[in-house]
Write a sequence for this structure.
């Protein structure tokens, strides 16, 4: 029961997170909201994969942790056609549209729950304490 429930929850999160939907109520905008799809290369095989992944990478300039996302079968086809792809950071999710590859900078992605608490400092040492003395 727990495994089935966890799988259902993960699928719902994937659908919301990987959608192109705008924010609505308590639901945040999907990662693809206001993102224009890029056309696929006319090339085929390894050359086409290299061209497509290169265009996607260029669309995320300065990425410090570039990750590609797709369905598992898309990743497998890419690895079979261009074995070098196997060494790239690549996540799969069954909720991504067929024949779609998404590129994102994982270092620029923050996901959380509950109340947001964010702090920025230029100090070398910060001690945060909430106990009474």
């Amino acid at each position: 029961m727990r495994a089935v429930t966890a799988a259902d929850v993960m699928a719902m999160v994937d659908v919301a997170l990987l959608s192109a939907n705008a924010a609505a109520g308590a639901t945040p905008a999907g990662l693809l909201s206001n993102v224009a799809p890029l056309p696929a290369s006319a090339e085929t095989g390894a050359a086409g994969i290299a061209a497509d992944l290169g265009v996607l990478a260029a669309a995320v300039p300065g990425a410090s942790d570039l990750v590609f996302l797709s369905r598992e079968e898309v990743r497998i086809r890419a690895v079979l056609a261009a074995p070098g792809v196997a060494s790239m950071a690549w996540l799969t999710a069954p909720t991504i549209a067929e024949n779609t590859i998404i590129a994102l900078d994982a270092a620029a992605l923050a996901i959380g729950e509950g109340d947001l608490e964010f702090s920025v400092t230029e100090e070398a040492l910060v001690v945060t304490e909430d106990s009474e003395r």
